[in-house]
Fold this protein.
Amino acid sequence: MAYSTFSQEKNDALKEPMFFGNPVNVARYDQQKFEIFEKLIEKQLSFFWRPEEIDVSKDRIDYGKMSDHERHIFISNLKYQTLLDSIQGRSPNVALLPLVSLPELETWIETWAFSETIHSRSYTHIIRNITNDPSLIFDDIVGNKDIVERAEYTSRYYDDLINYQQAYNLHGEGVHKTDVGELDINMHDLKRKLYMCLMSVNVLEAIRFYVSFACSFAFAERGLMEGNAKIIKLIARDEQLHLSSTQHMINLIRTGQDDPEMAEIAEECKQDAADMFKEGAEQEKEWAEYLFKDGSMLGLNKEILCQYVEYITDVRVKAVGIDPIFNITKNPIPWMKTWLASDTVQVAPQEVEISSYLVGQVDSEVNVEDLGDFEL
Amino acid sequence: MKSDETKVTVKVNDSTEIVCNKNENLLRVLEKNGYEIEYECQEAHCGTCRTIMNEGEVEYTYEPVAYIGKNEVLPCSAIIKSDLNLTIEW
Ligand code: FES
Ligand SMILES: [Fe+2]
Ligand SMILES: [Fe+2]
């Protein structure tokens, strides 16, 4: 299954599975096997924003007044977010694009990863504003033991999938002797690695990110770092789409609406997936420990954040057909919902932004009356 | 969103019956009646409010892009169109 950027073989994408069928050739969207990905693309495009539009200048003053342990919480959280989006800005493309067989899904993946690059660029915007030497923060992401550990957890399943598919492309199915030892390469394991990777992406975007959102919003709840919170609110709105998209992929697979072999694999992986969510939740609790090691902040402490981890994990597992792990049904941080609601998203305080609209519906006709009070 | 005078019944967990106007927003109706449904986006794209709907018909104010399973509804954006039968887990 060597990858080709334009397979000349005629194929009917309506009959292809999401992954591991024929590579996509013509990027056409007049017909879709799974329309949902086209809708996700439209929604994501309608959410477009630029970090520079958000004024973060007041944050610098707030940051200057914060105590050392609050700065530790804020900066560590920001480093973690930077790490997660560094991974997300490239990995869906590198890991998933070579495997995809539907044009609408291929384009969704690219649209998704592109929006992650906006997130990454916004961290630079935030960091530049609070310090004259951004390197102090960025360099520590690969130098700090606690952060590096998080990188390992979050990139493991992507790397595993990427390396295995490269070996598959290079050697094909069978047992092969390579410089890294003997490799038994087969499609079943490759599919398994894809399924587990999708689950791990959901852990990343639907749990880990949410824990970090809680920290960002906790400052803003006290009127601090509000520019940062505005940006995080826009990031969160994008992440809601991303997590929905992986839930769609996972559910299409496991309910047998796609590749039948993948459906079997989903069943086979059920326990492993549940364990992965649980492990992810435990890691987030350890992270909460690290964040609050020198003290809590008003409105958020280790206990509440850990309860939130359990609550959000249960919400997420239920959405992909896994039984709740912690049995927490009430959100212990009720103010999160104000920050996560789309209708209150504002870019700048003066101009209320309508949080979603379809670009295609923007009226491009200009009437003379519309220009009523317009003076040059 | 105008609600007309036609009354419909929202049955919850086969025990409680809520009488409300047709065309009301389901999340608001449930909230008014003491059900704290967790929600986030309120625009049918995050899936947080996902609730079991055994029977009934709704229309959406926002076209859902969140995952909705069989027999599920997103109350945040659902306009009640008929009697509903819901299961709400606490
Ligand atoms: S609150 Fe997001 S889908 Fe209902
Ligand atoms: Fe992101
Ligand atoms: Fe994302």
The interface with chain B takes residues 36, 39-40, 43, 237, 240-241, 243-244, 247-248, 251, 315, 319, 329-331, 336-337, 340-343, 355-356 of chain A (CB under 8 Å).
